């Protein structure tokens, strides 16, 4: 799936000034993560994780 077709969103913890933000998009089997500074039209680097891996990662942050 092209990352252009995904619906990306920023965390509610991200400020409106830009800077160091991540954007996330989900599909049933994959969590897609990218740096918000990358131009979406350029289809910059994207990290792809399974939902289980994403859940383990976010659980480790708390």
UniProtKB/TrEMBL annotation:
<protein>
    <submittedName>
        <fullName>DUF397 domain-containing protein</fullName>
    </submittedName>
</protein>
<dbReference type="Pfam" id="PF04149">
    <property type="entry name" value="DUF397"/>
</dbReference>
<feature type="domain" description="DUF397">
    <location>
        <begin position="6"/>
        <end position="60"/>
    </location>
</feature>
<dbReference type="InterPro" id="IPR007278">
    <property type="entry name" value="DUF397"/>
</dbReference>
């Amino acid at each position: 799936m092209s990352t252009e077709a995904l619906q990306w969103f920023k965390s509610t913890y991200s400020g409106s000034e830009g800077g160091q933000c991540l954007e996330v998009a989900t599909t049933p089997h994959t969590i897609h993560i990218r740096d918000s500074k990358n131009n979406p039209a350029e289809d910059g680097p994207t990290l792809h994780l399974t939902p289980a891996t994403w859940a383990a990662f976010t659980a480790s942050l708390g």
